[in-house]
Design a protein that fits this description.
mainly beta, 7-stranded mixed sheet, 4-stranded antiparallel sheet, 1 helix
Length: about 120
């Protein structure tokens, strides 16, 4: 059974930090690229960051550059998203996504977690 379980969301003040985690099971994690997406209230889902299977294969959305860091620990089958200097516009549900090379090429959705809420407010 495939599972992606996110955690680490919560309420944080502007300028604060959070670290999201996503633990994977039920598939060959090492072979999958991992993604963080987010869906702000009333808006569509957008890519935050992605990390491939090769070292250094990382891409960030413009809004994430310099503030967010994606990383993965293959031994723990976990992908992380370190978020610093959070702002109210970062408020969203954050989702973990896993895509095999075939999924990525074919634009198939892959596997999704249930999401974790991040709220940035004073």
């Amino acid at each position: 059974q495939v599972q992606l379980v996110e955690s680490g969301g919560g309420l944080v003040q502007p300028g604060g930090s959070l670290r999201l985690s996503c633990v994977a099971s039920g598939f060959t994690y090492d072979d999958y690229s991992m993604f963080w997406y987010r869906q702000p209230p009333g808006k569509g889902r957008e890519l935050v960051a992605q990390i491939g299977t090769a070292v250094g294969n990382i891409i960030y959305a413009d809004f994430a550059k310099g503030r967010f860091t994606i990383s993965r620990d293959n031994a723990k089958k976990t992908v992380y998203l370190e978020m610093n200097n959070l702002q109210p516009e970062d408020t969203a549900v954050y989702y973990c996504n896993a895509q095999s090379p075939a999924d990525y090429i074919s634009r198939r959705p892959g596997y999704w977690g249930q999401g974790t809420q991040v709220t940035v407010s004073s």
